[in-house]
Recover the amino acids of this structure.
């Protein structure tokens, strides 16, 4: 109590009210976001709270009242999404989840309840400092309990990261090569295979497959992903190996995204190509491992995109709801980031240096922000990247949104490939892949739990497994030399094949398999 008095609890309490929800959001998602993602939003909100405190002093002389009022407003503002997530309690009002545009009733209830409490606070002659002290101590206890989780988590992550680095034995020996064609690795997140689009989505006019074949791409029409979620898939394909060989302590049920960061950023494919004189280019996609890359010569970024943490913060606070009421669509940032990536890929093809470009495009994967003609889609839906059962809409909305977005993305990709092929001084190497398939046939019965394998697939439904594991996988090689490729090739062997065919290496071609856990 004495310590709280010394540091002026009336100023401290609102800042604690900011700290806990921001820290809780980070602790709940620290497998997906880095601690640096928290710094900017925390600094902005904390500064705003401090200035608001000073501003209110002009009208309210009792500093303890100001502190109590601000704590209430901060708590309500930053927890609005969590309250909307209490599905069972709001079913009578048809509030199924935090879907922007469908929470007006909830907003009105909270608004009137908060107004009554604020009026009561203002009518009190004097607020006891004991109330602020107890509130501060309660929040500090919650913060401590949240902080305890983080070092335990990071000690495990650090061990696994060190373990993975030790397993990156790179025996690549640069061989003399007459040519060094530009190499493009374009990852369309969640892009399904042709037969899956026909069987599950009823899309029998597969524009992209027909286009690729017309341009002499090799399309592996029986290809599967090696893993069923993005980070594992890319950590594997960018390092030419399975995770069990890259991370010795990797558990089959482990979904620890931070472990994959170094494997994805400083991957063996880029290391090997740098030895051959290639310039390494990457893009920011919005996922933690793709927010920055110090190993790339240029990490292209659409300036006004939200990172993973900032997106979740908007969704869980009242900010997203108010933005929607003001007719401001935050999903437009994601649309522009995707379009920016396609346009920048065209420009890279004009670079005279030999380049290796890795572009992770989060589409046709949710959020569904494109209609078939490229116009904005699903305004009012939650801006969220979750797939399968955690998708904020219905199963049929997922199916329609996925197919509409895929049709547009395929057309944008074809347009981009036209520019790359036209602008390249020598024929490039191009790989176009999905990291996994979509999840329409997944188990949708458990929408409120955290991500599990069962939410991405229905283990009792063979069609669900086929959908999630069947991927687009196409190659463009100089002189169209596809003699070493085969219809069932998986991403783990893609760069092994390229290094063997074009750079004099002798990598073993691994068994093509899919790991569901």
């Amino acid at each position: 109590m004495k310590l709280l008095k010394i540091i002026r609890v009336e100023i401290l309490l609102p800042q604690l009210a900011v700290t806990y929800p921001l820290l809780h959001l980070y602790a709940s998602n620290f497998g997906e976001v880095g601690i640096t993602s928290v710094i900017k939003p925390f600094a902005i909100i904390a500064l705003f709270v401090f200035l608001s405190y000073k501003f209110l002093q002009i009208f309210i002389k009792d500093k303890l009242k100001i502190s109590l009022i601000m704590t209430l407003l901060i708590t309500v503002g930053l927890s609005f999404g969590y309250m909307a997530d209490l599905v069972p309690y709001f079913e009578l009002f048809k509030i199924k989840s935090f879907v922007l545009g469908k929470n007006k009733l909830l907003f009105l209830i909270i608004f009137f309840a908060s107004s009554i409490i604020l009026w009561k606070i203002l009518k009190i002659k004097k607020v006891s400092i004991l109330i602020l002290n107890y509130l501060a101590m309660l929040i500090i206890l919650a913060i401590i309990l949240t902080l305890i989780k983080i070092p335990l988590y990071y000690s495990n992550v650090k061990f696994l990261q060190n373990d993975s680095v030790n397993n990156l034995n790179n025996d690549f020996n640069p061989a003399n090569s007459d040519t060094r064609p530009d190499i493009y690795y374009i990852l369309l997140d969640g892009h399904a295979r042709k037969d899956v689009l026909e069987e599950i989505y009823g899309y029998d006019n597969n524009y992209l497959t027909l286009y690729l074949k017309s341009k002499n791409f090799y399309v592996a029409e029986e290809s599967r992903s090696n893993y069923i979620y993005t980070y594992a898939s890319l950590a594997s394909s960018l390092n030419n190996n399975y995770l069990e060989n890259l991370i010795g302590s990797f558990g089959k049920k482990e979904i620890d995204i931070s472990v994959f960061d170094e494997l994805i950023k400083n991957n063996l494919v880029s290391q090997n190509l740098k030895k051959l004189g290639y310039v390494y280019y990457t893009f920011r996609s919005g996922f933690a491992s793709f927010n920055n890359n110090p190993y790339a010569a240029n990490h292209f970024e659409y300036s006004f995109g939200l990172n993973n943490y900032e997106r979740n913060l908007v969704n869980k606070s009242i900010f997203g709801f108010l933005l929607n009421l003001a007719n401001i669509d935050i999903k437009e940032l994601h649309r522009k980031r995707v379009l920016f990536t396609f346009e920048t890929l065209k420009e890279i093809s004009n670079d005279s240096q030999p380049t290796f470009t890795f572009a992770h495009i989060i589409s046709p994967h949710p959020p569904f922000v494109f209609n078939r003609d490229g116009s904005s889609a699903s305004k009012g839906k939650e801006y969220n990247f979750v797939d399968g059962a955690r998708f904020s809409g219905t199963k049929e909305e997922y199916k329609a949104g996925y197919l509409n977005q895929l049709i547009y993305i395929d057309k944008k990709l074809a347009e981009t490939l036209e520019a790359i092929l036209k602008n390249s001084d020598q024929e490039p190497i191009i790989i176009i892949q999905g990291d996994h398939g979509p999840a329409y046939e997944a188990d949708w019965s458990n929408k409120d739990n955290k991500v599990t394998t069962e939410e991405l697939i229905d283990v009792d439904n063979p069609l669900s497994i086929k959908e999630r594991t069947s991927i687009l996988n196409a190659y463009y090689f100089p002189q169209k030399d596809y003699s070493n490729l085969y219809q069932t090739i998986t991403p783990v062997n893609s760069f092994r094949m390229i290094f063997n065919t074009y750079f004099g290496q002798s990598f073993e071609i691994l068994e093509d398999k899919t790991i569901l856990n």
